[in-house]
Amino acid sequence: MYKYLRKILFLFPTEGVHYFSMNCMKILCSLGLGRLILSPAFRPKEKGQWQIVGIEMSNPVGLGAGFDKNARYLQELECLGFGFVEIGTVTPLPQAGNDKPRLFRLPEDCALINRMGFNNDGVRQIVLRLKKWRERNKGSQLIVGGNIGKNKVTPNEDAWKDYETCFKELHPWVDYFVVNVSSPNTPGLRELQEKESLRKILLHLQMINNGKAQSKPIFLKIAPDLPKEQIDDVIDLALEIKLDGIVAANTTISRDDLVTDSPKLAMIGAGGLSGKPLRQKSTEIVRYINDRTGGQIPLIASGGIFTGEDAIEKLRAGASLVQVWTGFIYEGPSIVKNICRTLAMAGIQNNNNN
User: Fold this and answer.
1) Residue from 58, 182, 183, 274 carrying the catalytic annotation
2) Domain 2-349: which CATH number of 3.30.70.260, 3.30.460.20, 3.40.50.300, 3.20.20.70
3) Above pLDDT 70, what percent of the chain?
4) Average pLDDT for residues 276-288, to the nearest whole number?
């Protein structure tokens, strides 16, 4: 049924349809009857035991950062069965992001290109929203991650201050953090993936974290475009400072091997590519990190996950959990349920039998 609805939705601008669809779901979920209908229809029935760095969750399928940037749709996403949702990327100050249009579909490739530019309401407003959600949903099992970044106007030498601000403000309200230095849509941001820049940011956050009554896991999200030598630097640093984990991977700036014709790509212009074209590359990175470290670094796999088979590929490559985003747009609200059913049929119901 969704494939017919998708044809209609794809007739309209991508970003507008995103908010229209989620706001419709929000209205439906505000009605008790709506939640009673959605949850049984879309939540996985399979039971398993999934955990990462001490965090337990109902299933291994999460929603990657960028979908619910401002923590507006947590109740709705929980109704759709997600085991965890990563909000953000959150920056200290509100920012509008890049000019529209900035989100584009590539249906022939089952892909998206975005150059959103960390558009978000700013950390203070998002904290208020999270606090209200926590107070109203005390029985919720949904795990919420906070993806944090720097404002566009902040120079790289001061980036650590932006990450500190977001970390301190969000700390009481999220279950884990992801440090985003890998988006291609903020000028100069990927320069922060250099080893010494990363060391400064991550060690500073760890120092703050260690001073808290309850520390929260810190993950690093890396780009799929890193050369092998830089991936090795990330691995070495992660092992050295005992980083909690890595999210692999963000969107790519590559346009290799796409079916979409060159004139259309040229018209769209710059941005990060996500979806099926990223599946193999992200799996290779997950496998490389897992093999090189002997599984010492917990991994969340992101990139090209549309089906249960895609998730199994990532889990067998060494990931503990998977995140979807573009797959959600193309596969629809049943994606979590379908992936979990496939995992159960394959006998994969916990982190120990990948």
Assistant:
1) 183
2) 3.20.20.70
3) 99
4) 98
